[in-house]
Each structure stands twice: as C-alpha cells, then as structure tokens.
Amino acid sequence: MTEQQVANRLEKLRREVNHHLHRYHVLDSPEISDAQYDALFDELVELEQAHPELVTPDSPTQRVGGAPASQFEKVTHELAMLSLDKCTTGEELGDWLTRCRNRLNDPDELTLICEPKIDGVAVALVYEEGVLTLAATRGDGQTGENITQNVRTIPSVPLRIDAQGLPRRFEVRGEIYIPIADFHAFNEACAASGEKPLINPRNGAAGSLRQLDSKITASRPLTWFCYSLGWVDGEWAPAAHSEVLAQLKTWGFRVNPLVRQVDDLDACMAYVDEVLEQRAELGYDIDGVVIKVDDLDQQAALGAVTRKPRWAIAYKYPAEEAVTTIENVEFQVGRTGAITPVARLVPVFVGGVTVTNATLHNMDEIGRLDLRIGDTVMIRRAGDVIPQVMSVIESKRPAKAAAIELPADCPACGSPIVNVGDEAVARCSASPSYCPAQRKEGLRHFASRLAMDIDGLGDKIIEQMVETGLVEHAGDLYRITHEQIAGLDRLADKSAANLVEALEASKETTLARFIYALGIREVGEATAANLANHFGDLPPLMGASAEDLEKVDDVGPVVATKIVDFFADDGNVEVIEALITGGVHWPVVDRSDASALPLENQTWVLTGTLEQMARNDAKALLVGLGAKVAGSVSGKTSQVVAGPGAGSKLTKAEELGVPVMDEAEFLAFLADHDISAS
Length: 678
Ligand code: IVH
Known about the structure:
D-amino Acid Aminotransferase, Chain A, domain 1; five-stranded mixed sheet; alpha+beta; CATH 2.40.50.140; seven-stranded antiparallel sheet; binds 2-(butylsulfanyl)adenosine
C-alpha cells in the first residue's frame, strides 16, 4: 500500500471503530458481534504500529496512552459551573415555579424540562474543531482539575465528532457514573482477585477519575450522560435547552432518554413520582430530578444568585444511604437450610422508611466487609430491595467490637451447620422434615402469591401450625379442619373461616404455580412455567430424566439434577400425593391444541412501569402462554409492552419496527386469552 492508501485505510477504520463504539456504548444497540469489532480494532492497532507517524491523538486506539501524570493541572472554567437549589415537596416546587413566572412577568408560555439527577461526578468537556481537547472536574465551580487523559478512556465519551456545522469550540457538561450492575460485577472480580472493592458507584466514579495512571481509569466501568451546554464559540445559537439536548444527541453525545418536556406543576410532579417509582430499575443511581426552564432567553432573564441559577431546581429524593450501628448479628435459616446472617441495626431512616435489619448474605460477605458487632456502617436501601450493608467506617470502630462467627449448630433445630462443596452459603444439615425453620419457610413459599396464593396464611399462623405439630408439610394443609384452625392462638373465628375458604380456593391452580410452589431448588416461577409448558402435566415431569429436562428452555445440567433429585426423594413424593389427594388440581396443558400455548416461539419484552400488575406477574402470565420474556429488544423480539417511563428499549423497538403495546392494550390482550390481571 502507498502511504496515501494506508492513510485512507486508517481513516476508514477509525471511522468504523468509532461508529461501532457509539452503537455499543451510547445507543445500546450494536450492529456487529464483539469478535467482529475486535477484528476491526486489531487491524487498526496493527496498521498504526506499522505507521506510527500516522497515529492521530483522536484515534480510538489512543484512549489510553501517555505516561501517568504526577498531579492534576488546575483549570479555570470559562463559565462557572453552578450548583442547584433544592426542594423536597410539591409545594416548594410550586413556589419556585411561581417565582419564575413572577420574575418573567407572567409569560404566555413557560416550558420546563425534567431530567433525572444523576448521582455521579460533574465534568465539563471542551471540543475544538470537533476534537475533545479538555475534560475538567467541577472543583469549586470556578477552578477544577484537568482529567482529560482519564476521561478519554471512557468509551461513551466521543473523542471526535464527525458532523457538519459544528461550532469551532464548545463546552458540554454532564455527569460521569458507574452503572450499578457494572459496579457489582467489578466488585465481584475484585473479591476474586483479592483487590480492594469500590465503596459505592458514586465514590467509585470519583476515585476512578482521580487516578494519575489512566490505565487504571480505563479498567473501571465508567460511562456518562451529557446534560447541558456550557458555552459556544462559533456558529450555533440554540433557542431552548431541549434543542441543545436534541442537537448533542445527533452529534453522538449520550443524553438521558428519560428527559421530558412539561408545562405545569402537575406534570412535573407526575414526572417526579414516575421516576421515583422506576428508581430501582434505572440501572444507575439518581438522587432526584432536575427541573429546568427550557427557553434559553428566559434562563438568561432569570439569571443566578449565589452560584445557583434561578432557572433550575433539584427535586431531591430521600437518601438511599445512611450511617448506623450494628447492634447484633443473628442467623436465619431459609427454606433450603441456607443460613443467612442478618444484622440488627440501630433504627435509621433511609430510602423513605425506618430500617432495623440488613441482610449480610453469607460469611464471605462478612469477611469481605471485615464487619464486627458494634461497627458503624453505611447501609443502603434502594426501592424494594432488602437493605444492604455497603461498608464499614473503620475509624469509628469501638475497641471492643466483637468478631462475628458462624454458629456450629442450626439455631432452629440444633443440627450441625455445614458448608457444601464450594458454595458460599452454609446450610443446616438436617432435612426440612426435621428442621422447623426450613419447614416454616417451605410453607411460607408454598402459600406465597406467585405459588399457591393462599390469602391469610401468614407467618404467625404458619409458626403456630408448625410449633403445635398441626402441620408438618404442605400436604397437611388440605387436611386441617375449621375447628383445628380456629383453635390456634389469636385467630378470630372470621379469620379462620376466611383461611379455610382461601385454602379451598387455592386447590384450583395451574401446573406452573404448583411446580413453583413445591420449592425445588433453582426452580423459580419462570422455570416452573417453562416446565409446565413443556411437560403439560405432572407425571411426565416426575418421570423425566436429566437429559429430557435439559431440552426445556432455561434448564441446564445443574437445574436438571436438582429436579431429578427432588422427585427421587420419597418424602417429596408423599407430599405431592397428599396434596393431590387433598384436592389440588390443575388443567392439563394440551400439547396438541395450538391455542393452549398461543405465544409459543414468541419473545416478549416488558419495559417501563406497569401500573396494574407487578412485572414478575406479567412475566409469569406471558410464560404461561408459551412466550419467552427477554430483557432486551432485538430484531427477534415479537412484541414490546411499554408502561410509562419506558426508555431506550422503547426507542429501540420503534427503530427496529417491533410492535409495541401499552398496558391497557396488554390487559385487553390478556382478557382475550381469558386471563384477568388481578
Ligand atoms: S444541571 C446550573 N442536570 O447536580 C445547572 N445537573 O447540584 C447545574 N447533576 O453539579 C447542572 N444530573 O453535577 C444538571 N440532569 C442534570 C444533572 C445535574 C446531575 C448534578 C451536577 C451538578 C449538581 C448540582
């Protein structure tokens, strides 16, 4: 190849690699496989190595490079990076809106933009002639630090923008963060290799950007959302913030898909509530919502006071993290004998509720945290997730903080506690028929909503049924009489009658629910539904070999073995017989009747918030109709169900032309298949 041909090829490769990086990291929609991408990237690296004089600083191979810095240079922002005023109630937000209107002399129109407030690290990026030339932290708002080398390693940050009509120089601002799933995966890898884990996603993002060696930054799963324009030097005079975001998006910047234009307080509050409801499922931490005046002239007219703009406000959500103290650690016994250490905490208000317990998962986790009784800890409660202990504040450890040890014997039945194979969990060595704690948990699972759904069979009643010997296993439930139930402590006659009725009603069930209710290890409700669809009735499932079972969706060798072992146990077979004799029954799934599994071979995706039913329930119903339910949209997706707040999955479905229905249409669809959502 001539020099010119090499240069052309390099230019083409760089453009292609950048294009695929953008598809993957910004649009979440890759067009080629990882292997195909690697081949392109490798070709680029090889060609550049052979022609080092043709390497350009904006080449995607140059994201990591250069010697570690000895310290960060100071950068004075050309335009100060302000902070935000905050509010926590609709009333305060309303007051802010009124102040805006008054200052603008009651404008005919006041459009607002609502955005999630990302809990990460603020940055300002300067592009000159389309090339990223400077990345700076916020610092004190006037002066930050030059972290360009580190920011260049973040794959979703464009190093160069190939677009017509770019202003000569401009600055964009945004928030760098670590997605929650990546944070956990990163920490698991740290635990495996003995490295120090990150404390939380925000702290991890900040620490990663403060590395003097950008190779370390490159190893951290950082990404970002761009949320505003700092300044422009050149030809571009947008009229509104919404226009800025739309333009930045077309230039390849990663803009949050949940940004919404609204025009009154009610719509703002609806947004605040919707995003709060989705908070646990967003995949990244937010600490509230930012509401901004859209029109840039109106923004300018409103101006700023004491480093805070008047044209924007943060609506803050309750903190999900708090500091408290470990009073004690107790050990709970689960349905399968798994022993879970649970921390008893000094009560603390976090994530909107008072929390007194946090799960510690297993002894490895206690070791990883180096936790002792009396320690001051950071806890986190996000959404409906069980509160977790995130980290120990070692500087606050009292001198007599006691180590936590796994008891030798099961606290419920006294049998030895054992570790099986290389499982992280320790287990009670007794069988459920001996250990009352396992029995109670098994019954609780059996009665739960997605299993037999026995209303009124709560923890207290199960506890008494097991303690008094009235019920040993699920098979006994359908033998007990009204008199026996009414004899239980604190159970009013009316409640006893209701429970008898609920037991009676639960007898009419589906095969999927029944399989799930049995509590076979590793068989969750989706696997149970797959097994039911595949085998149609219980006898063929009970007689299936591991080989037969592996033909079922989602069933691998481990799950297959657990199922075979379960049905090989005489005790389990006796319980099943007692249940069937007691009257539990289900319609047999007729495999020859095409209408029995109308969604067979279809893949559905659920996104956004469903208001009439939990997402898990919707999933179980779909699987019951024969569908596969996937987590992401692709060309193979048959149907998307999108509730309010649906984001990138909905956009992608629209791009790919996948049919989309809303919740009302979904409910109508279910009704057509004789399924009611309640
Ligand atoms: S607008 C003057 N939009 O919140 C306007 N900020 O408390 C200030 N933040 O340091 C920024 N998400 O780092 C804006 N969608 C968003 C944001 C956001 C997070 C951070 C930002 C700033 C802090 C202000």
